[in-house]
Design brief:
14 strands; six-stranded antiparallel sheet; 2 domains; 9 helices; alpha+beta
């Protein structure tokens, strides 16, 4: 009985993905969720650490209670690359739990084929994929694409602790803490640039604008001990943070709203200009996060 149990336990299940399968999914995903027009990245940075931001989803379900389960398939087929896609958590929940009837296997297969076509993966290749073949295809896709430059940027809020330290909070909560401790310095807004590509990048300038119709402010001399000098190099995997005193942006939002119609100053957007000539924008930071009276 013990030997039978041991044999059953050692048999790979429908979720025992091989390393090659997982690598292939992330490589051929285009670095975002497979759901059409979804731009959620497969990896995000939290406290400077890369964190997986998607889940492996089955086209034909992993077990009898799963969406799109096909009883004639083996577990090897269920866990194979050809039966898998990457989905962000909301779309995985939508596709498998909330509205599975609206998402047949044929639809998910179309998403997979369209997303992976640019990487040279086609139906014929999928039919005979082995672990070794997956590794070959990964190397082919990476080699064909060549090294890529990918810099992202984001805005944050916090306070200074002297000139060389900073405390940050989630933007939607920051205003509740700005003046909660007399030891805190002035509130600041930060711009973080991250190099998530395979080429070294150079940041030439950093600024923040009031959107959609307000001014653009550049004030890099405020924190000479902490703000990186420009131009600034960003090696692969590195990040840099620039901080600005928040008060001028509050004044800019209020002044814009006083002159222009409603909706003229709803948010802030950071801009990072690279040595390559590219401009990288941050996601919008709602102006209401800056102060309780905005």
């Amino acid at each position: 009985m013990d030997s039978v149990a041991c044999m059953a336990k050692s048999t790979p299940g429908p979720r025992d993905y091989t390393q090659g399968t997982e690598r292939a999914l992330f490589t051929f995903s285009g670095m975002s969720c497979y759901y059409p027009q979804c731009s959620v990245p497969v990896v995000v940075f939290i406290d400077e650490e890369p964190v997986c931001n998607v889940q492996i989803a089955h086209i034909h379900g992993a077990n009898p209670r799963s969406a799109r389960y096909e009883p004639s398939m083996t577990d090897d087929q269920r866990r194979a690359f050809a039966n898998l896609i990457l989905l962000c958590t909301p779309h995985h929940t939508l596709v498998d739990r909330l509205r599975p009837d609206q998402y047949p296997a044929t639809a998910l297969q179309e998403w997979k084929q369209q997303r992976e076509a640019d990487a040279g993966i086609d139906n014929a290749a999928l039919a005979e994929l082995t672990e070794d073949r997956l590794v070959e295809l990964i190397e082919k896709a990476v080699g064909a694409a060549g090294p890529q430059r990918s810099v992202t940027a984001e805005l944050g809020l916090g306070v200074t602790l002297g000139h060389d330290k900073r405390v940050s909070w989630p933007p939607e909560k920051a205003k509740d803490y700005f003046f909660s401790d007399p030891e805190y310095g002035p509130p600041v807004i930060t711009v973080t640039a991250r190099n998530q590509g395979a080429l070294k990048a150079y940041v030439d300038s950093c600024r923040i604008k009031v959107a959609p119709s307000g001014p653009t402010l550049t004030m890099m001399g405020e924190f000479p001990l902490t703000n990186p000098a420009l131009p600034c190099s960003l090696d692969v995997g590195e990040s840099c943070v620039w901080q600005f005193t928040l008060e001028p942006f509050l004044r800019a939002v209020r002044a814009t709203r006083a002159v222009f119609p409603e909706g003229s100053a709803d948010s802030l957007i950071g801009e990072v200009t690279l040595g390559s000539g590219e401009t990288v924008e941050t996601p919008e930071l709602p102006a209401c996060y800056l102060s309780a009276d905005l």
